[in-house]
Specification:
Chain lengths: 257, 214
């Protein structure tokens, strides 16, 4: 049984149809790469999964829990809980400028902890866990020595690595990336892509929207090509990149290479 | 009349200016925040009404507002304002809250949507996002216009003179009535020193917040 299931998802802004009948599935631990030209709806799809937009129709589920169904309405509190299944790394990093690297990573877990009813002892232990997790994350994105820097003191590539660590600190089931390297100078994309690549493996399920085709082919288990709000083609990287069936996919791939 | 006596008497008057200044700040900043939320409300009738109100206050002289607060209760409702200082305070708080609200609105609206969204996807509540992420960035951005406005407030406090609040200019005028003109000019020194101190304070605060860029 698939881990993530997206069924008949539709989104329109007023009269503009941005997503039409989006269906796909993803296994736990797999990496899905979404490619497609500008305006094809990739960002909107990630935003719907992260509850930043509300899809007009359809549903999606993670594990055996239906997270979203357009027929239902959800309270803010429910949405907050549901969206923690997903994490999102933005194109423009969106780090919190007034906090250090370490504080950016620990802010959300600590606020979450505050809301829980715990004894002083439990609280202390949880705090220690949060700090320990931050250490591990800083290590894994290679920024241990920058933990007390503020975002404005970091390069774009470093900022994006912090953003990745920050998203991971909430232990999302599925981590989404929206063009994580598009705002970076070309010489900085490598370090970010390497970090994403290194996250692959084990149980970590990821959805990556990217224009870096070489990276896409390397990291992906599944590839979706989107055009004008629909999934034009879906398959393994070898199928989509090596032997595209759709005329549009061929044209797109010819264009970017 | 010795220099020392004049100095003391003016200082007594200036104490009233300081009181009006501090109390106005104390109440108009929170009220300004509430008004700014009102003018940004998604509920159109509310934001419309609030904007009309802000327009009326910002579009008429503070001196006129002082007269209105002081005289209208007595003229219309037969309950004359006895406390002149209270009348001045009410007029100042409303007036400054409206100016501040526009500064707050500008500051809040200048924070990128991405900051809110980053907080949302991390599971923070709206309140947490505002207080833990947005507020300090807004404070940093509105520092320059706020310090301007606050320094203007220091000098505006002497407008309370028009409803005979015993502030520094009124004190100086009393000397002028007795043929002593120089105390009137001497009042300038009080304002200069007070504003100078505020300028130093704001400079310090701006420096304190310069550790991050947003
Ligand atoms: N809030 C919105 N209101 C109206 N239209 C929107 C909104 N957000 C996105 N759109 C439209 O939806 C379409 C898809 O946008 P989306 O950002 O999802 O594309 P994308 O595939 O991510 O493109 P890119 O590669 O440029 O990031 C575009 O035509 C865009 O103009
Ligand atoms: Mg996009």
């Amino acid at each position: 049984m698939s881990f993530l299931k997206v069924n008949h998802l539709e989104k329109h802004f007023g009269p503009t149809r941005v997503l039409e009948d989006i269906n796909f599935e993803l296994e736990k631990g797999q990496v899905l790469v979404i490619i497609g030209s500008s305006g094809s709806g990739k960002t909107t799809l990630l935003r719907c999964l992260n509850f930043l937009e509300t899809a007009n129709q359809g549903s999606f589920s993670v594990g055996d829990e239906i997270l979203f169904d357009a027929e239902q309405t959800y309270t803010d509190k429910q949405i907050r809980e549901k969206r923690l299944k997903f994490g999102l790394v933005f194109q423009s990093f969106n780090l919190f400028p007034q906090y250090t690297v370490r504080q950016n990573i620990t802010l959300a877990p600590k606020l979450m902890l505050k809301e829980k009813q715990l004894t002083a002892e439990q609280r202390k232990e949880s705090l220690a866990q949060i700090e320990q997790k931050a250490d591990e994350l800083l290590e894994s994105v290679g920024l241990k020595d920058r933990q007390d820097f503020y975002p404005c003191q970091l390069s774009g590539g470093q900022q994006q690595r912090v953003a990745i660590a920050r998203a991971l600190a909430m232990s999302p089931e599925i981590l989404c990336f929206d063009e994580p390297t598009s705002a970076l100078d070309p010489e900085l994309t490598g370090e970010v892509l390497r970090v994403i690549q290194s996250l692959k493996g084990g149980d970590r399920t990821m959805i990556v929207v990217t224009h870096e085709m070489g990276f896409a082919r390397d990291v992906a288990d599944r590839v979706i090509f989107m055009a004008d709000g629909v999934i034009e083609e879906e398959g393994t990287p070898d199928e989509v990149f090596g032997n595209p069936k759709s005329e549009k996919t061929r044209a797109f791939l010819a264009g970017v290479h | 009349m010795t220099f020392q006596q004049v100095t003391l008497s003016l200082a007594e008057g200036f104490l009233e200016n300081c009181r009006l200044f501090l109390e106005t700040l104390l109440f108009s900043i929170p009220l300004g925040l509430i008004i700014s939320f009102g003018s940004m409300s998604k509920f159109k009738p509310l934001s419309f009404l609030v904007k009309i109100f802000v327009w009326c206050i910002r579009g008429t002289p503070l001196m006129l507002q002082l007269f209105v607060v002081f005289y209208v209760p007595g003229l219309l409702f037969d309950t004359p304002m006895r406390d002149r200082m209270l009348a001045a305070l009410i007029a100042f708080v409303i007036n400054y809250a409206c100016y501040f609200s526009e500064i707050f609105r500008g500051g809040i609206e200048s924070i990128s949507k991405g900051q809110y969204e980053a907080g949302q996807v991390l599971g923070l509540t709206k309140t947490q996002i505002f207080f833990k992420i947005i507020l300090l960035q807004v404070v940093k951005r509105i520092m320059p216009p706020m310090s301007n406005e606050i320094i203007t407030l220091v000098k505006d406090t002497s407008l309370a003179r028009v409803i005979a609040v015993g502030e520094i200019l009124l004190a100086a005028e009393r000397f002028a009535g007795k043929g002593l003109i120089w105390p009137l000019f001497y009042t300038g020194a009080y304002f200069l020193i007070f504003c100078g101190l505020l300028t130093i304070l704001f400079g310090y605060l701006e420096k304190k917040l310069s550790y991050f860029k947003s």
